[in-house]
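Teaching note: in complex prediction, the entire set of molecules is handled at once rather than each chain in isolation. The prompt given to students was simply: 'Predict the structure of this complex.' The entities are:
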Amino acid sequence: MNNLLEIKNLYIEGFYEDRWQPIVKDISLNLKRGEVLGLIGESGAGKSTIGLAAMGYTRQGCRLASGSINLEGIELFDASEEDLRLVRGSKISYVAQSAAASFNPSHRVIKQYVEAPVHHGIMGYKEAEKEAVELYRRLFLPEPEKIGYRYPHELSGGQLQRAMVAMAMSCKPDIIVFDEPTTALDVTTQIEVLAAVKEITEKMNKAALYITHDLAVVAQVAHRIMVLRNGRLVEEGETRQLIKKPKEKYTRELLNVRTLREEKNITDKMDVILDIEDVAATYTGQDMALEDINLTVRKGRTVALVGESGSGKSTLAKVVTGLLPAIHGSIKFFGKDLPLELKKREKEDLRRMQMIYQMPDTALNPKQTVRKVIGRPLQFYFGIKGKQAEERIKDLLRNIELDPDIYIDRLTTELSGGEKQRICIARALAAEPDLIICDEITSALDQLVAEDILNLLQNLQNKTNMSYLFITHDLATVKAIADKIVIMLEGKIIEQGEKKQVLSPPHHEYTDKLLASVPEMDPDWLDNLLEERASTFI
Amino acid sequence: MLKLLQQSPLSARIGMGIVILNVLVAIFAPLIAPYGETSIAGDVWEGFSAQFYLGTDHIGRDLFSRMVFGARNTIALAFITTLLSFLFGTVLGFIAAVKGGWIDQLLSRTIDMIMAFPTLIFALMILSVLGSSIPTLIFTIAVLDSTRVYRLSRAVAMDIEVMEFVEAARLRGEGLWWIIRQEILPNAMPPLIAEFGLRFCFVFLFIASLSFLGLGLQPPLADWGGMVRENAGAITFGIYIPLIPAGAIAFLTVGVNLIVDWFLHLSSGLHE
Amino acid sequence: MKNVLFLIFKRLGASLITIFVISVIIFIGVELLPGDVAESVLGQSATTETVAAFRKELKLDLPPVIRYGAWLKDFIQGDFGTSLANGRPVSELITWRLANTLFLASTTAVIAIPLAIFLGMLAAFYRNTFFDKLISTTTLSFISFPEFFIAYILIFIFAVKLNIFPSLAIIDDNMNFTSKIYAILLPSLTLTCVVTAHMMRQTRAAIINVLASAYIEMAEIKGITRLRIIMHHAFPNSLSPVINVVAVNLAYLIVGVVIVEVVFVYPGLGQLLVDSVSKRDLPVVQASGLIFSIAYIFLNLSADILSMLSNPKLRQSQI
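The expected output is the structure of the full assembly:
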């Protein structure tokens, strides 16, 4: 038998809107020993469902409808619960997206590692414990002898994720399903986990299904890639082949490296509209969340504020808007000192500075219609009402490329994620602002939708000459839209300057690490990086 | 709305039937009742008959008429009390959630204090001091019950308050009143409506219990809890009479609970 | 562990403050009596001697703060004053009745806790089956019923129609344990119905909540048997919420006991409280109210402490 796993014509149904509807349609796949197959697609593509189905498992509200799942000669499609249990964990295992939720908070990490092999009768407790330590070492976990004896909440996100990769290996299964194992992590941490995945699939010669929405990530680990959309296969191919010569339009769109816009230069003569000087802020009164922040935003330009989680970039947005008053320093807006506290600011200043948020779902009141969402700033700031307001709302909808007649009376809950984000943009535009603060506005959106939103913002800036303060953790976005880049780490700005200058060497040490950690489409990128790092450490 | 009613499960429909029946009886009490609320019409504890549909009570009043007037008194009292309790609870809860800071601290600690006291004991002590009259009863129970409403509305408002659309309203410069009315209240309605049903049941049972203990509505006013108390002695003679008002209380609370259950199921389902 | 101790002490302190405030409220309550306290309580027909005796009894001739101090001191020493109704010391009235109430409450707890947890677990594991729906409907009804409705139905069936249990729960010190249990079986059964219904529903919800966690899915995917998942993964994490549910509902028992005692004419503290309220026998109301409140606060306190101790994250931090 050549293939470890053979899925044939698989259909899976989910129960929603009071009936069973197909969510995975006619999927077939094969997996050979030592091979890594990447499953890629946007949300709703059915990739996680397929991953779990490979173990004969479906989440509540889903069921296997038809087809065949053959794992090493065992048919899982209609196997009994007991037969499935014997296979799960021992022959095929699973690495979930959120390690923090997937570890039982009551038990030590190593105890959860040992559970499966002891339970499946593969080895004794002591032996399993010894192997766990060995694996922790191979997966580059710090203090491998001790770390397992901690409780899950005492480990960092990246460490837990690697501990889960180790746990998946505990019974020495032939296949591992990786379900977005790095999505919840920062780029620099992502590398550690990818290295762990590579260690297992290459050096230990395991077969794997690697599920992700990020083509650049999957290119590093997979031999073959399947592109999925809405539960169907779009295209399948050998990794290098697929990246070099995609056959389908959808794949090409996913692959498209962001169109770098022409850079606008920044000169000292341009008007400074926002000038932050020596600002510090704190949540607790003791630990500083921000320190020594100096930053300017010029008219018609985009400043990208970059950093990983906990770097203080969103805190800075709160300080600029006055939600978290700075404890010292000054914020000048059009040359005038803004009060640090939101409540003391004038309506006119509030109008000129608008904000767009990460989660369009929570940024719009679910009980309001588009008309009300966009109409309120018109009425509040300009006193525009009635017929005049309706015309203006329609104009704004046209500006954000939505058909006014279709959308104006929709509830915000009746919109897709991308449409919601457009409405948020329209709400900000309604105030006719000079500065828009964009807080991670594309990170909750699918790649293609995000691309459209960025293009829209670009067009709007060209038309109205607004400035953006663009907060993000995604360096690809930064490269696409920024004129100026500000890099933050632990509440401080460690480097800032024009895009060209920041992106070209010499870098600050952290900038270097950050830039180097962003996966590139090149399938050799990870290997090269790891080699390079290994050599520098010696 | 109509479509929603059409899709309602059997249990919810039964619940709605029960509630509507009770409300109609309460509203049209004088038209329905064959005898006056307090008029003595027959012998003590007579059985079912064409003259007395449900027999007579411990001093010979028509039990059916007493039940009908009892519905009016008991339901109206509980409803007014619940409304008052909601008024106190939601207003304070929303203010605490939106304002935060020392106002929230002060309100919340005070409420914690009141809630650390068992409600029935607290009510008994207040009534022992002030004596039992209808305004005292309404006010005491409304205040005690509003603590739970406060907890819930504060929690719900806090959940909504952290959403970015509220932050967006703040950044726009909107005032407290606008934020509460336009942004928070519409989103807090589903859990609050369900809570209203639950609180009504609680208040209704609570007043019934107080009346049963002889500390609620005072005779000769007809109220279901008091009627159980007045006729309690009958049970040892194998006469079912106290079970009728007690059963009526149970009947209405079950009805309300059935609706609440459906509503909770509905609003949790819509979240997904 | 240090962390947990700190939290427990904090919680303990809060409870002590609450008890203090409640004693002040109870004391002030008497002060708030409108008009002349003595006359309004004793009525127009009271003789001057009784009014004077009453004033002295409540120490109305002294300033409030001193009176409060004296009252509290006496209370702590077990001297609750004398009853206005019959002139006997309150402590004498209360002691025996308190013991009776505790007997009834603890008998109920012994039946209700295991029953509720067992049924709650069954309903959670077999959720959305016929069994689960049956139990949910039944408990919803029991929650909706007033205690006295359940009580009278039980009396009607078991005492009147079948004649196997007494309709009045009369006990005295000369009875042996079995006959005492026999006497209180109906009131205890009434309370069990109500308390079990609440406890069972919340236990079910708590366990379902745990069963929906990602780590339970992970355990299933690891191929662990169902029994082991329940015992090893679900149980330790359900412990904290379930313990909390149990203690909170025991606190509810304190309130339920008042009505049930009245129905069955059971000589407990609850019935004494209700009697004294109608007679406006204030020293007795003060004393029994305070005792009920302290018991209630104590149970809520133990609920919190136990759930802190059984919370894995709190327990493990900084050992």
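Point out the following to students. The two ends of chain B are 20 Å apart (CA to CA). Chain B has one domain: 11-31+66-268.
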